[in-house]
Amino acid sequence: MSDDNKLIVERKKKLEELSKLSKLYPNSFKKNNSTKELRKLYGEKNKEELELEKSTFSLCGRLLTIRKMGNSSFANLHDESGKLQLFLSKSGTGKDMYKLLDHTDLGDIVGVKGIIFKTKTGELTLNVSEYVILSKSLRPLPEKYHGLSDVEIKYRQRYVDLMISEESRKVFSDRIKIVSEIRKYFEKEKYLEVETPMMHPIAGGAAAKPFITHHNSLDMNLFLRIAPELYLKRLIIGGFEKVFEINRSFRNEGLSVKHNPEFTMIEFYAAYENYNYLMDLIEKLIKSLIKALNLDNKFNYQNYKIDTQRPFEKLNFHDSIIRYCDGVDEKNINNYSALEKYCESNKIEVTIKGSLYKTQLDIFEKIVESKLINPTFVTEYPTAVSPLSRRLDSNPEVVERFELFIVGREIANGFSELNDPKDQAQRFSEQLENDDEQMNYDADFITAMEYGMPPTAGAGIGIDRLVMLLTNSASIRDVLFFPLMKPKN
Length: 489
Hints:
By secondary structure, the chain is of the alpha+beta class. Helices cover 34% and strands 26% of the residues. The chain has 16 helices and 20 strands. The strands form 5 sheets. The chain has an 8-stranded mixed sheet, sandwiched between helices. Helix 14 packs antiparallel against helix 15 (443-450). The mean pLDDT is 93.
């Protein structure tokens, strides 16, 4: 029998013995206070002031340290807001209640009542007068939480990670705050929060491989949404001028430090605006989040130093390739043969032979992206790789589109929306003919556009990647409560 299994047997035995002393799993204990509240109220007061405080407080939480010393003991109680030291003694709780400590293990959830004081070392402490075991931890908590084996536990058993890792709890508290601040920001900008379907009859809104499910009653296949874009634009056509959706989307693709098949993003659309408006809005949003998290405008992400104090750089798509790719210049940037040779020399796979614009995108993704460390808006992508974007008036070969990159990762993608139904139908058709990762032809969306779509700007921001950046998290799995994992067996 393994050591862990022996401990489980011992704890189950304690539970049986506990049943003779008190009711198991009681649900009548009333929690009136939190550790954070008590620290805020009394943390700065001295011992003499606390001796005059006779109020009784009640807390609930998990015991993560216990130090028994005969007739008295110390323990640390952890709740959602933090931790507080407990002092228990036979004289304080009574002999029978104090005996419950013999049946207590690390990880047990307890309820305590008592008055507040400070020890000789100045530690804020609850002098316990009532002690109740609310739930027993039958499994022992990990003793050490470092190394590869524990990373596996961290992702597979997030509940254990959250119990014992203050760092993980801080990351997820920050994530919750980031999402809340994003919502407040868009509401302040007069956007309306909406909800659109997660099951689509046509996979659209982005070029990606969908998850397929089946509706039994209608006997039809449906697709988990790749993006909410086409539904949100239908709402713009219907008359709402500013909409946003914080949404879960799904792409049937690989797992990596920056990809999870199920992910969170925000998409937002504003009528009568263009892509320059979006870049300004997104820059202000990110800077407001940095302020809300009390980060410095110049902060570290892993091994990189990020500067968000200065205005975010704007760099033309073609110019970015010329700047970062030795051997590509203004003379050959639009020469397919020259770019194909460059790809051969640099071991870049050409995804579509003979396609100039796809080859430019292949080079950009392989070479340029990783070099965009400080916030950079890459603008004016080729029309051929941007099927939903409005063409630039001065050059119809490129579109009014941008992607925001930070530490080599795409954080946001946005553009002035194509609102010409004839052009949109043609681009859908061209993609179906020429692209393996095409966006499906959505005839109803074309119908909606034919009723008249106002000039519109729209963008999406990957919330998971943004949280990674702002919490200095190396992997997307570190910022997802329950990342997708391959089964253990």
